[in-house]
């Protein structure tokens, strides 16, 4: 069995409208090679807006 931890990168999701960093998540770089883009609720915009992946976290 391969080590699953090595295939996951920790990322932050930011609101594309207000640029606030709202979510911290992980992405499996094997299953999802492209950058994440998700519609999520933003507390600052007070509605569901597109969030995109930003820099990788250490
Ligand atoms: Zn927002």
In short:
The chain is mainly β and 58 residues long.
Question: Can you tag this structure with a few keywords?
Answer:
binds zinc ion; mainly beta; 58 residues; 0% helix; four-stranded antiparallel β-sheet; Rubrerythrin, domain 2
What do you see in this structure?
The mean pLDDT is 89. The radius of gyration is 13 Å and the shape is elongated. 0% of the residues lie in helices and 55% in strands. By secondary structure, the protein is mostly beta strands. The protein has strands at 8-15, 21-28, 37-42, 47-56. It has a single domain, classed as Ribosomal protein L33 (Rubrerythrin, domain 2), CATH 2.20.28.120. A hairpin with a 5-residue loop joins β1 and β2. The protein has a four-stranded antiparallel β-sheet, with no helix packed on it. The two termini are 25 Å apart. Zinc ion (ZN) is lined by residues 15, 17-18, 20, 42, 44-45, 49.
Order of helices and strands: EEEE
Count of runs of 4 or more consecutive helical residues: 0
End-to-end separation in angstroms reads 25 Å
Looking at the overall shape, the CATH architecture is Single Sheet
Poorly predicted runs:
none
Write down the domain tally. 1
The CATH topology is given as Rubrerythrin, domain 2
Helix content: under 10%
Task: For the largest sheet, list the strands in their spatial order.
Answer: 2-1-4-3
Number of strands: 4
CATH class: Mainly Beta
State the shape: elongated
What's the structural blueprint in terms of helices and strands?
Layout: E1 8-15, E2 21-28, E3 37-42, E4 47-56
Antiparallel strand pairs: 1-2, 1-4, 3-4
Zinc ion binds at residues 15, 17-18, 20, 42, 44-45, 49.
């Amino acid at each position: 069995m391969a080590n699953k931890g090595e295939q996951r990168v920790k990322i932050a999701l930011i609101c594309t409208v207000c640029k606030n960093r709202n979510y911290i998540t992980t992405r499996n770089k094997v299953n999802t090679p492209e950058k994440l883009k998700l519609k999520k609720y933003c507390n600052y915009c007070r509605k569901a807006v597109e969030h995109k992946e930003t820099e990788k976290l250490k």
